Structures are given as structure tokens and as C-alpha cells.
Amino acid sequence: MKKRIISMLLAACLILSMTAMTTACSTSKASDSSASATTSFTDSTGRTVEVPTNITRIVPSGSLAQMALFALAPDKFVGITSDWTDLNKQYLDTQYLNLPVLGQFYGMKNLNLEEVAKVNPQIIIDIGDPKKTVVEDMDAIQTQVGIPAVHIDGTLDKMPEAYRTLGKLLGMTKEGEALAKYCEGVNSDTQAIMNKVGEAGKLKVVYCSGDNGLNVIAKGSIHAEVIDKVGNNVAVLDSVSSMGTGDTVSMEQLLLWDPDVIIFAPDSIYSTVASDPAWQQLTAIKNGKYYEVPNGPYNWMGSPPSVNRYMGDIWMAQLLYPDQAKYNVYDKAKEYYKLFYHCDLTQDQYNALVANSLGKTTK
């Protein structure tokens, strides 16, 4: 009887063991299958690319993509295009500050393929204004690194659609929709303000940068998207640079344009023009209608021209047309910084940002 009971117990144990092994094996296979599962994704160029179904490891192609993606999925980053500056770090959580620097595919074109391989991303995402060669470029980077690469159009008008597309791609539809609605809201509110202002009511504006202030962001440049929308950008040139440094002009040309308002880029000559006889000839300088773009963690007007420009819309509309843009810029900035930088913007931070950017300039 004892032998029979022992035999039965051993048989039961064997059955349980085999069941556990079968379950574990099935679970492992399901896990492997899930990890290797792919889906077809059509990007903004019309390219159809096989991408992982569950994307948890991403790399941006450049600074524009990095900024747009950081708003949606910072925890999926396995690398960044360039090291964070001290200015960036004042607004970003420390958990994102030590990501590997991989370089970028466009611009400096210093993408380090060895470093990309080390961090083992599942996808490379490009966001921004499409280059003429974007299809060939995305195919080339995909071939070089053996990782899916996709392009998403990312002008200001197309960012709502971009975030909805990214939300589906990354399995973050709720978060993508929240960002899309925000972008739509700013676009709509800015357009409503400009409808009230009308074309005839737009102030003449020039955006100056460079060590001597004689580089302008010309009308029609991607870097002038905010100025062209919110102001009458009188910096009209026959040939427009696509570079963020803009086009070099003479003081004589500035005098011919004689804008109502001059916007200076950070680290330009904002602080010295009031005492400079040449600049004092300009109406905007004489009237104290010159300002410096807020800068932190990025320039609100561009550099790079990504989603930071939504703050440019908000700020510049209120600066130029306070009677139509009746809102508190700090309240708007707090909302923006929380959504896009995951940062609780303090009053002191805000005051520092707009110290030279709002109200009457003291000559």
C-alpha cells in the first residue's frame, strides 16, 4: 500500500512538473513573440516601414525631433543628440541628464553609429520640416544602422497631427492626444488674435541675431514661422537662408525697413543698442520697442525651430497686441512647461525668462 501511495505521489509530481515546464515554455515563447512582433507603419513621406509593435527604446534623429519627442516620451529615450547645456539642465529632471550622446543625422551630421548600436534602440524618429531628400535620407540611415527610421512632418500647423501619429506609433495615444489638443488650442487662439488684429494692424517686426545684431531671420524661413504669423516680418530678401543664424544685412538695410519692433536673439546686442548711435537711428530703438527673446530651456522663437515656438506664439502675440491677447503669460507658460518639459515653472524662473521680454523697455 505504501509503495502504491508513493508511486501515485511521484506520478502527480511528475505531471505538475511537466505542466509547469509547459506553461513556462509557452510564456517564454509568448514573451519572445511579443518582443519580436512588428507592424507596418507609414510615415509622413509615404514610406511603409516595419516597426516593433511595442516600442520602449527610441532615438531622435536630431534636435528638433528630440524636443518634440521629449514632451511625449522622455522615459523611452536611450540617447540624445547633443549634451544638455547648463541652461537646459535648470528645467529638466535629473533622471534625463545622463543619457548617452549619440550625435545627429541632420545639421552637424555627427551621428555616431557605434554609440547608436550600443544603446540598442528599436527605432530612430525624425521630426521636422521635410528635406527634399528625406526619403533617401531615412532609407540611408535605416540601412546604415539596421534599425527602422521614420520621418514625421513637424511644422507648427502639422504638430497636432504629428503628436497623434506619434501617440499611435509609441502606444501612447492618450498622451499624444493631449499634446495634439494643446497645439491645436495655441494655433487656434493665436489665429483668433491675429484675425482681430487684421493684416493692416500687424506691427512691422525684425528679428535680429549675431554678435553685431545684423543677422536677420528673413520672411519665409522656417525659423521665421512665428514672426511671419504674428507680425509683419519686413525682413524680405530675394534669397532666404535655411540656417538658424539667418541672413546678414547692413545697418542701411535695417534703416530702410525701419521696423516698429525689434526682437533680439539671446546673446546678441540687446543690452548695448540703447547707447549705440547707429542703432538709435531706428524708430524701434528710439521708442523703446525692442526686446530679447526668452531663453530657457530653449529659445522661445526657435533655435531649433521645434515645439518651443508655441511659447513664441503665446509670448509674441501678447507682447505686440496686449489689447487682443488678454491673458497672463505666466499662467500660459506654466501649462506649457509642464506639458513639454515636465517642469513646474516657478515665478522666479519665469521672471528671469521675461526680464527683457515684456513691457516697456528702459532706454
UniProtKB/TrEMBL annotation:
Annotated Pfam families: Peripla_BP_2 (PF01497)
Domain Fe/B12 periplasmic-binding: 57-324
GO annotation, biological process: cellular response to iron ion
UniProt keyword annotations, A-Z: Signal
Record's signal peptide: 1-24
PANTHER family: MOLYBDATE-BINDING PROTEIN MOLA, VITAMIN B12-BINDING PROTEIN
Family: Belongs to the bacterial solute-binding protein 8 family.
Protein name according to UniProt: ABC transporter substrate-binding protein
